[in-house]
Every structure is written in C-alpha cells, then in structure tokens.
Amino acid sequence: MTIRIVKENKYQVIYDQGKNQFGKRMLRSKVFNTLKEAEEFKANLLQNEDTLFNKSLKVKSKYNQMESKEPWSYTEAKQFLELAEKENKDVLYDTVLYTGLRLGEVCTLSWDDVNLMEGTLTVKRYIERIGSGQYKTFTYRIPRTIQLPAHIINKLDTHMKKQEQWKIDMGDAYNNGFSLVFPNKNGTLMKPISLNNQFELLIKKAGVRKISFHGLRRTHNRFMIQKTLNKPFFK
Q: What is the pLDDT of residues 55-85, one digit of tens each?
C-alpha cells in the first residue's frame, strides 16, 4: 500500500468517526504530521544506505588495490622465498611455486601422495569451506600427478626426516592419524584460513607486493612458461 492510499484511507476513517469540526482538524493535523515524519524517515534511511554502500565500495576498492592479481616477478618470488627460509617455511612455498598446488590441496597433501623415489606428487583431494567455521574434504574423480624437480625432492626428503624427529619429540601429543606433509605443529590438518593468514604475514615481513594464495599458482604458471622459453627459473 502506498503512502497516498494510506493517507486517503486514514482521512476517511477520521471523517467518519469525527464528531465535530474541531476534532476533524486536530485528527487531520496529526495524520499529516505523522505521514510527513514517515517521509523524512524514509529519505534519511535511503541517504544512509547510499552512504554505507559508497563506503563499502571504497573499502572494496582499497582492498583490491592492496591485493594484486598480477603474478610475482622472479625477483619478488625470490625475495619472498628467502624470508620464508628464515622462518623455516620455505619447503611449503617452494613446493607450491613449483607445483602450482591450490590452497585446499596443500592442506590435505599426504605423504602417501608423494613418491620421493620416483620424484612425483599426486593431487587427490582438497579441502573447502562449506559454512561458518566448517570445512569438508573432497576427492578428485581424476587425480593429477606432477613431476618434481630434484631440489624439491631433496627439500621434501629433509622435511620428512625433520617431521619424523618432531613426532618423536612430541610423543603422544602428536596426531599420527593424518600423515600430512604440511600439518599443524601437533600433526592435525591446517585449515586453509590459517595457512592463508600465515602467507599474508610472510608477505608483510618480506616486503613484497601482496597477492592472494592463488596468486602463487598464477606465478607458477608464469615461471613454467619462462622455463619453457629457456628463461631463468628458481635454482
């Protein structure tokens, strides 16, 4: 019902029930003031909505400017990996840059998926957020196998030995049921949001241009092309 219809109906009720001319004028005045206040409230509400919408656009625009979709250059990736190595997290990011693993794939990567003797890594599953704080693991119908370069094989081999020693040191506090390549310190699955937060913190420490975790995959694709074109790749 529009305001005009409401106004007319209200007036009809007022005139029908009014017992004298003074009462009619008083009631008419009250209805008119009420409708005027309603119009003003509606105008203010719309104005506030426009303000909030514009602010949200500014925040979104600022965020997009901060996070570039352009892949890293060789120099940027090298600078980031050097910082990651100081933080003892270079194995994960070096592996991602060479294999192009997605965020959810890194979190669910198991040692059963890695064959160091043959130098291969098979991507079988990934984890994805399905609700507020809820995650679900999905299995690929057709897994993909990636050939690993020699230095990544060596890094993963060293990482596995360190992890075995960490398990011994942790004792019963370590969860052996997952056999994950990049778990939490207690062996449990690292949630994508935790890994993403870690990545953003390392970017800040390294002082490189901010990209999303998926930007590492784009960077991998760029370097694979450069490698095909006999351009410098990670050593």
A: 444 444 444 446 788 999 999 999 999 999 9
Give pLDDT tens digits for 183-228: 999 999 999 999 999 999 999 999 999 999 999 999 999 988 877 5
Q: Answer whether residue 18 is part of any domain.
A: yes
Q: Domains in the chain: how many in total?
A: 2
105 and 153 part of one domain: yes
User: DSSP for 59-101?
Assistant: HHHHHHHHSB-SPPPHHHHHHHHHHHHHTT-HHHHHHHHHH--
Q: Are residues 27 and 98 in the same domain?
A: no
**Both 192 and 78 in a single domain?**
yes
Q: Residue 36: give the domain boundaries.
A: 3-65
CA distance 6 to 205: 62
Residue 234 has pLDDT above 70, yes or no: no
> How do the residues of the chain divide into helix, strand and coil, expressed in percent and rounded to 5?
65, 15, 25
Determine the Cα angle at 133 with ends 109 and 144, to 5°.
Answer: 25
| The one-letter amino acid at 39 | E
Q: What is the mean pLDDT of residues 29-34?
A: 71
Report if residue 234 sits inside a domain.
no
> Is 235 a member of any domain?
no
